[in-house]
Amino acid sequence: MNLVYQTVGQSIDKKDGRQRLRGEPLFSADLELENALVLKVLRSSKAHAEIESIDSDAASALPGVVQIFTARDIPGRNLMGIINKDQPLLVVDKVRSLGDAVALVAAESETAANAALQAIRVDYRDLPAVFDPQQALTEEAPLIHAEGNLLCRRDIIRGDIHAGFAAAAVIVEQTYQTSFVEHAFLEPDAGAGYVDSDGVLVIHASTQNPHYDRSEVSGVLRLPKERVRIIQAATGGGFGSKLDVNCQGFIGLALYHLQRPVRLVYTREESFLATAKRHPLTITMKSGVDSTGKLTAAKVRILCDTGAYGSYGIAVVSRAAVHALGPYALDNVAIESLGVYTNNPYCGAMRGFGAPQAAFASESQMDLLAAELGMDPLKIRKINALRPGSVTVTGQKLEASVGYLECLEAIEPYYQAAKAEWLPAQVPEYRRRGIGLGGMFYGIGNTGTKNPSTARVVMDQTGQATLYTGCADIGQGSSTVLIQILAETLGLEYENIQMVAADTGRTTSAGATSASRQTYISGNAVLDASKKLAAILCSLGARQLKTAASDLVLRKGQVQDRRDPSRGISLAELAALARKQGIELFGEGRFDPVTTSLDPETGQGDPYATYAFACQLALLSVDVLTGEVRVDKVVAAHDVGRAVHPENVKGQICGGVAMGLGFALMEAFEPGKTESLKDYHIPTCSDMPEVIPLIVESEEPSGPYGAKGVGEPALIPTAPAIANGLALALGERITTLPANLERVLEAGLKAGLFGA
Amino acid sequence: MQGNEQGLVDISITLNGREQKVAVPADMSALKLIREVLGLKGTKEGCSIGECGACTILVDRQAVNACLVFAPQLDGKDVQTIEGLNREPRFQALQQAFLDRHAVQCGFCTPGLLISVYALLLEEPCPDRDEVIRSIAGNLCRCTGYHQILSGVDRAINPDAEWRPDVG
Questions:
Q1: Which end of chain A is less packed: N or C, by CB atoms within 10 Å?
Q2: Is residue A146 part of a domain?
Q3: Measured distance CA(B18)–CA(A615) in Å, rounded
Q4: Which domains does chain B have, with CATH numbers?
Q5: Residue of chain B nearest A27, judged by CA positions
C-alpha cells in the first residue's frame, strides 16, 4: 500500500541548516567560558614501555601552570571502554601505544600549557613491542594486557563445510588485507566545561553518545551520574571515533579538582595521534560454488588488529564475522574472527564496524567464483541473493524488507549499458577501463545486544510540541528525520516543533549515534512517544466532538473526524482545555529492536531486527603508465526501507561513496608516520566520480513509517565495486587496500601491462 | 603597520566593513587573530596547515586560508569572514541555494566552502563545472561527497538548474 504522508518522504529543510550555513552553531572549540583554563595532554612517545617515574615539579613551577594531573589524581575507576574497560584515562604503570595519555596539564594559557608539556620529565623503560596481530598471538609475544593478547573471538558455524566443499565445482581461496583508516572528520575533538551552581560538572563536547560519556566520566570520578552533565555541542562529523570518550574525561578530571572552567581542543595532529582508527583486517576466505553458480560452502578466518585497547573492537570482530559472506544465502559455513591486541594505535568504531573490510573480501570472492565459472558477476549475485524467506549464516530467517534483489535489478540497466557500450569503447592504449559490482547487507543496530532508545514528546498549552531526545545529530540529519516522524504522527507542521537533544540534563538516553541505528531505533522511540500523545489527544477530542476516539485522526494541527474532516478541534484548543483540567500533555516512548544474542560456540541467533541492502556499480579507468585510477561513475542502489528524507539519503550515499573511494584507493594511516592531513589524503571534490543514487524502498514493517537506515551501508559497497573494476581493467586482482598508485602499478606489471 | 613597545605589531584592517586597529604578535596567524582575539568563531580551524580549507576567509576579495597568513600581513587589507558575508545579498542567495540542495551536513567545512565559491563568483558570475571544482578543491568535506554542494553552486548560478549527478 502506498500511503501518502504529509512530511515523511519529503526533503524538508535541514533542522538548523540555515544556522549552519551562517557559521552560527557553536562547536566545542567555539565555546567561550569566562576565565577558562587551557588543558593539554602529555602523550606517550613510546609504543610499549613501563613508566618508571613522572617528574612534574619543574613544569608545575612554570608561570601560568595551575596543576598537573597523573593517574594518581583519578578518584574513581581509571579504565574506560565502550564494551570492555581496558583503557586508562591517564596511564598507570605503562604505555601501550604511541599517544597514550600520560599526564594532563591545566594552565592559564596555551603557551603556558605547552611549556609545561615540554618540562614534564617521564622516564620510560622500553618493553618489547608487537605490531603484527598474528605475532601478537604467539607464545613469545610480549603481553600488552595482563589477561593476554586475545581480546575476543566470534565463531559462526553452520551446516557441514566438508560436504559443502565436496559439492563444489569451483573453489577459490584468497587472503585480503586492509589498512588503518583515520576518520578525518573536519572538526578535531574538543570540549569545554564548568561547574554549575548545584555542583554539577557540565561538559560540552563533540560526541556521538552523551549518555555513555556521562556514565564513563562519572565512573572515572566516582561521582553519582547526576553530578555530571554532558551536552553535545555542534559536532563536525564523527564516523565512529567520537563514540569513544576523548576530551570529556580530561575535562571532567580538571573540573573535579579545580572547580574552574576549562577547555580542551585537540590539534589535528593530536586527533590523528590519540583517537581510534578503523581496524585493519586480514581475511582469508575459501569459497565454493557448484556448477550452477550456487554457493555451497565458505571457510573464513578474520584477524582484527584492535591496537592497544578494545574500544568497539568486540563489536567489530563480531560484526565482521556476521557480515563476512555478504548478502548471500549459504548453508555451510565456518567463520572464525579474532580480535587481537597489538602496540598499534587503538581501533574502534568506524562507519561499518568491520563490514566494509569483510565486503571487500567477500565481493572479491564472488567475482573470482564467477570468473572461474564463466558466469556474469551480476548473475552469480542474483542466484545467491538473500530474499524473503532466506536464512542468513547465523540462522536468522529473513521475513520482510529484504531488498537486495531489488537493488540488483535497479543497478542492472546501468550495468548492462556499461558492459555493452562503455567498456568496449575505444580509449588510448595506456588506459584500461573496468566495471565492478559491490553488494552488501548490514544489520541495523548493535549485534545481538539490547540497544534501546527513549524519547519524550511534550505539548504545551498552545498546542506546540517539543521533542526531547538523547540522540546526537553529528551532521547526518537525525534531528530532521526525528522531527519528521513526530510531525507526521501528530499531524503538525514540522517548522513549529521544538527540539531538545543530546543533553543528559534534559533528555533520556537514545543510545549511540552508530550502527546506522538512529532512524530505525530512535525513530521508533519517537513514534512510540508520539502515538501515546496522539492517543491522549484523540481521547480528549472524542469527548469534545462526541465521537469515538477510534474515528479520530490528527491532521493539520487538529483532531479530526476521519470521515468528515470539517468536524475537528484544534490542538491549541485541546491543549488549553487539558491545561484547565490539570492534564499534562506528554508521551514517553521507547524502542529496543527484537534480537537474540549469538550462541557463543556456533554464532547462531538473530542479531538484528532488520537489515539494509545495497549494490553499487563502479566504472573506472586506469592509466597503466602512472597507476592513476579515475573512477568515472558510481551507481548506488540502496534499500533503506523508506526514505524519510530522500535528499538526506542521497547525501549519505554520496558521502559514503566518497569515504569508500578513499578507503579503496588512497587512505592508509601508518602508525608512527602519519601525522596530519598533509600526509593523509581524503577525497577532494576533484577526486569524486559522477554518483547516481538510486533509492530502493522495501518497507520494513517494524520500522518507523517503514524506514531502516543508510549511514554505514552507503560506504560499504564502494571499495569492493572499485576493487572488482580494477581487477577487470588490469587483469590482475589487488587484494590489499588501499589500491594506491604503487599497488596498481605492481598489478599492471604482473599482468604485463606496463608500457603496453 | 609598525612595531610597538611590547613587541607587538600595530595593524589596521577593514574587517567586515569596519575599520579595526589591533596590536598583534608578529607570528600570530590570521586565524588566531580572527577566532581568539576578535572572537569571530564562524571561521573554523580544521588543520592549521592549509590542507582543509575550513578557515577560508576573503582578503581583498580573494579566498585565503587564514591559518597560512600571519596577522600582520592583513595590515591595510579588506578582510571578510562569514559573519560579515552573512549580510551580503549575493552571499545569502548562495546560502539559500545550498539550503535548497541540502548541501550542508555537519556544517564545519561550510563557511569556508561557501567563501571559496563566493570568491569565484565575484570574479566569474557564471563559472563552468571545472572552475567550480577548482575553486573548492582545497576545501575538504568528509560528510557530503560534494555532490549536493556542487548542486547548490549550480542553483546559485542558475536557479532553474536541475540536480546533476556528475562532477566532471
A1: N
A2: no
A3: 54
A4: 2-84 (3.10.20.30), 88-157 (1.10.150.120)
A5: B108
